[in-house]
Amino acid sequence: MTFEIVDRIRKELFITGSALYEIILAVSERVNRKTQIIRLHWQASTFLQRIDGVAIETGRQLADHLTRSRFTNGEHSVLAAMDTILTRSMGQVHSLKQALLQIDARIRDLKLEAVYEDLLKMQHDLSVRSARIERLTVARRAAAVGRSTRELPRSSSVHLVVVMRGAFLLAPSDDVVFQPDDIVVLIGPESDLSSCVTWFTSQRL
After folding, report:
1. Of 198, 196, 138, 199, whose CA–CA distance to 165 is shortest?
2. Is 24 helix (H, G, I), strand (E, B) or coil?
3. pLDDT attached to residue 184
4. Is residue 161 within 8 Å of residue 187, measured between CB atoms?
């Protein structure tokens, strides 16, 4: 009996320790991701300052050459020098902008990782309760086309979260009328979502 109690305590301590390790690991990954995003924003700010510096220096050099042209007759040489300055400055700015684009892409990737992690947690929370999130595209001849949100065949446990139309997010108010290719997001119990899914995806005869 004593050995069973000791063994049970050992197992519980192992489970608790594993859960604590996973929590610490998840928190450290989140902190590390935020730290990387902050560092990338700082680098982007540095590149923007360098672009401003290039513009200021270019303006100064052009003004200097224009001032010289008033006291010399070498107009052709001055124009050639100004063209050289502009070409060099454009090359520098182009390189800096390319670096900014790479930083921006990296920031987006890190933010998507955070969103994906949150979505996985949400999906897990819903699945434990036999629920899910459903993302649907309204079919061309679906029953939903031309109908308002108030006509959605749903139970009180199914909720329309948002309607995405082109670049816009539409709040699910009663006066929203569904159009083909709208993207709708529903949330609710799996057993109740099926009737709503066919309303958006099945072809109307």
Report:
1. 138
2. helix
3. 92
4. yes
DSSP H stretches of helix in 70-188: 75-128
* Residue/partner pairs of 7-14 with CB below 8 Å, 24 or more apart: none
Dist CA 101 CA 55 (whole Å): 19
Q: Which two tokens stand for residue 193?
A: 């979502």
Q: What is the DSSP string of 110-122?
A: HHHHHHHHHHHHH
Cα 165 to Cα 137: distance, rounded to the nearest angstrom = 10
Opening angle at CA 191, ends 190 and 196, nearest 5: 85
Residue boundaries of the structural domains of the chain:
2-127, 131-201
Lowest mean pLDDT among 12-16, 75-79, 130-134: 12-16
CATH of 131-201, one of 2.40.50.140, 3.30.70.1450, 3.40.50.720, 3.40.640.10: 3.30.70.1450
**Rounded Cα–Cα distance for residues 144 and 197 (Å):** 10
Please give the model's pTM, rounded to 2 decimal places: 0.49
